[in-house]
Amino acid sequence: MPSLTPLHEPFCNLRKSPLTQGDFIEGLAQLATTGIARTTDFVQAIYRETILRSLGVYDGQNPTPLQQTMSEQMFRAIRLGMKFAGPYTANGLRLIGRMSSKQTQKPLYVPTHVLTSALNGVMGDHLVYDCNPLALPMLAFDRHNKVQTGPLAGRVVIFVHGLCMTQHSWYPSRYMSMGEQVYRQQDCTVLYLSYNTGRRISLNGRSFSNLLNDLYTRNPDITQIDIIGHSMGGLVSRSALFYGKQMGLNWILLVDHLICLGSPHQGALLERLSFMLQEKVGKLPFAGMLARLGDVRSAGIIDLRWGSVRDDDWEHLSSGRRGDFADNRRPAPLPSNIKAYFVAGTLEHENVPSKAREALGDYLVSVKSALGEHDDPEHSLNVPAERKKVLYGVDHMQLQYSQRVIDVVLKWMAPPVKIAQGKAPAPVADNVTIAG
Fold first, then answer.
1. Which domain holds residue 342?
2. Considering the domain boundaries, does residue 2 fall inside one?
3. Of 42, 171, 188, 257, which shows the fewest CB atoms inside 10 Å?
4. pTM of the model
5. What percent of the chain has pLDDT over 70?
6. 95 shares a domain with 192
């Protein structure tokens, strides 16, 4: 079957095994060297812009004597110190690893995995390009937090987490979690996707499509695939569907349900505000270089600005990695063979028209964005009203484990009720919103 390879990334990060404690130590050791050099550059930029330029002693074309003596000499000494401090720190970490070699072979503990996932969300694409072992691979885990390797058959339900999250985010109380309730009430296998949320959403979508293609190739007895994505996870799932259809992969024909919980299909207001602030700061006469600090945030976060799920939303932008404020997305319609369901949360506790409700939504994603609605028909995802729900008094993180959300998901996923001949089914109002 055809396969897709993520674009513009080094081969060294295409690993297929979970991170170990040793990888965590080695990754920190690498950050001790690469991170210090970048930090020194940023500190120098802050010093130059806020002190030298404000005093009128900075000239970018012809360095002044004060500039040369105060700035260049000082930071040359700092870099020299860091040149030795970084390797010593790295060697110290590696020595600790060698002293406990058995421990370093163990998989990451849950708190360490959570910390690593948060780091991936913030700077995951930088970790990839540096070939840092802390860059998380994309893997599917079973209900017991083991990498899925055994045979699969029948219905498979895959949960896809959001930005800076892990598969553990789905079950703060394991036995009452959404995944466990789906497993107990539906005849299915439950899997959890783990991935580096700092990568481009489209690259994660391609990788997810590859994973599902490989899963079906190895397990031809799979009869149905359902995907449940929270926040960014819904966009990664949509991207996988887009590329699966584009490449004509067979797994896409098995997808029945796509359920998105608080996914910013039309972008997230917070990222747009961050970009606007960065642009404003960049225009100040004394803080131009400070705006570069905003470029540290990952490409995955940048993609949330407008909910980009395709490579050509970003790879040809003349403005570079940061992009610009304009919505440059290409249409990415949902495949016609699947049934899509969207859930939006809102901090409001009742169905009252409110500009604050529309802007804030669940405090990260607006209701309109989560429901896939857009004034431009090309970007509107056209999900029927009976497959959309607005839940009042539910914030963005609660969408993963609120029992009210779980009840909605279980109802949507339930197989059709068989009606005895001659009896009409009772009417069900699927599009009724749920109050707090």
1. 108-416+428-436
2. no
3. 42
4. 0.82
5. 66
6. no
